[in-house]
Amino acid sequence: MVSLILFLLLISGPVQFGSIVLDMNTLLFAEAGLVLATLAITTGMVVKLFGVREGLLPPTPLTRILRTTPILEIGSLAGVIMTLTGLTVGVIALTDWAAVGFGPLTTVNLVRQVSLSALLTSLGSIVLISSFLIGFLSLPMRGRD
Structural domain of residue 43, as residue ranges? Predict the structure, then answer.
């Protein structure tokens, strides 16, 4: 949650708290935190669903929802939208960089665009892959020997 709040605060520019100024370095750490948190949450969901499927863990309301909701379709759509949005922001950043002849970047706004692009592309890919895994684990099982 801290990473999300920091990222949203810093994506538009530096933030000052007294004598402390948070800027690009903090933005990049917040971005990394968001990616790691998303990986941890989605991996936990997949492991929990697998454990319930194999009889290692008791079912929970979350696992019932995951097994009965069209996660594959919803997650795939959300992941594709996030990834395409990230790629679009990346193309806009590339176009802005091309406008200055692919020279040195003098504006941190372009770096902020690239950061947003990388985050959306990464999170979209994580959501897409996780929805495939959850969808697969939600399939009915054949009888066991």
Answer: 2-137
